[in-house]
Amino acid sequence: MRAIILAAGEGIRLRPLTTYMPKVMLPVGNKPILEYIIESLHENSIKDITIVVGYKSDKIKQYFGNGSDFGVHIDYVEQKKQLGTAHALYQARIEEEFLLFFGDNIVGEKCVKELLNTKINTIIGAHSNKTSVYGIVENVNGKIKIVRKSWDGEAIAFTGMGHFDGEIFRIIEGKMKEGIYNLPEILNEMNVNLRIANCEWKDAIYPWDLIELNSYSLRRNVRKLAGKIEESTIIGNVEIGENTRIGAGSYIRGNVKIGKNCEIGPNCVIIGDTSIGDGVRIGALSYVENSLIMNDTSIGEGAYLKDSVIGREAWLGVRFTGLSGRTRKIMREEVIDINGGIIVGDGAYIGSSVIIDPGVVVGSNAKIEALKVLKDDVANGERVV
């Protein structure tokens, strides 16, 4: 059995975190989202994988190579223009049966096992109380349909997982001549079967959703303490990487993962479901809770950060405060309710004693001078003085 993974898109709703990296390569639990799918396939003895790439494809190819380091064999095909998910799938057309996955979801190994046991032309739906960008699944006059609409409460979201054979490519080819390029519209023309997932499936639509994915991935933590740890309190399934130093008097509790070559503390508090990438510096007396901090970022002394996502190579000054709470905002003409903290893009510089309100997004390479109070988003490269 072959798996085809669609990984060509940018993930525009996750900007600015996807300015320099495709969505599938955003780290949760210090590993790219795409890696979790590949691990689940490997666990189910599926070794032949085709990945459809497009936006910043070099990042994917450099990390995964031919797949040998992950126990699989990976082929790449390119979607030169990101016209839609059906068009992306068509680039990998084959005659034999295959399993389909969207590369920007975390898919548990049990999901792959369930999909293996379905008939051809079966899609997987999952209970969700969040709007799915892929649509929700409904029974319309006895036929399974995927519709795009908002809803209140729980519904069945289309997960992007499916079991097909070469026939789907002939249908796609015909529909593309009519200007139809997205997979839900193609599937609505077919007689598909629906299997409701009894397994773990997680999707990040907006940047704050990465916190949930991060929490899920950190449940796999195994306590492992490497590096140099001065006298500190460490409770729970904490992983600390090689050549990382934990300063004296620090308190680390929960499902926490700290990468390699980090400098933490002294007297830092890191709690909840928190991942800290490689090469990160967090100054003395700082507090970090339920957050995702990517590689090579620096956070100054006395900082406070909760329920937030910080990109690569960002600089957060001393006494920086990233607040968390409930707010409502409009993103890409969609109204979303947020219960979380802030989002900071790659390479952003935030000066000393800056306070940022919940839900604020600071763009990549933005620069915020000291002593500012931010209540509104800051665009990529913008300067606030």
Notes on the protein architecture:
It is a single chain. It is built from seven helices and 40 strands. The strands form eight sheets. A nine-stranded parallel sheet has the order 15-18-21-24-27-30-35-38-40, with no helix packed on it. An eight-stranded parallel sheet has the order 14-17-20-23-26-29-34-37. It has an eight-stranded parallel sheet with strand order 16-19-22-25-28-31-36-39, with no helix packed on it. Helices cover 15% and strands 35% of the residues. The longest helix is centred in the N-terminal third of the chain and has 11 residues, at 33-43. The protein has 385 residues and is of the alpha/beta class.
Features:
385 residues; 40 strands; nine-stranded parallel beta sheet
CATH architecture of the largest domain: Alpha-Beta Complex
CATH superfamily of the largest domain: Spore Coat Polysaccharide Biosynthesis Protein SpsA, Chain A
Radius of gyration: 22 Å
- Side by side, the strands of the main sheet go 15-18-21-24-27-30-35-38-40
Alpha-beta classification: alpha/beta
Portion of residues in beta strands equals: 35-45%
CATH topology of the largest domain: Spore Coat Polysaccharide Biosynthesis Protein SpsA, Chain A
Distance between the termini: 57 Å
Q: What kind of sheet is the major sheet?
A: 9 strands, parallel
**Count of helical regions:** 7
Overall pLDDT score: 92
For the secondary structure, the number of strands is: 40
Low-confidence stretches: none
Mass-distribution shape: globular
Look at the structure and give the CATH class of the largest domain.
Alpha Beta
InterPro entries: GlmU-like, GMPPB_C, Hexapep, NTP_transferase_dom, Nucleotide-diphossugar_trans, Trimer_LpxA-like_sf
Organism: Aciduliprofundum boonei (strain DSM 19572 / T469)
Domain Nucleotidyl transferase: 3-172
GO molecular function: glucosamine-1-phosphate N-acetyltransferase activity; UDP-N-acetylglucosamine diphosphorylase activity
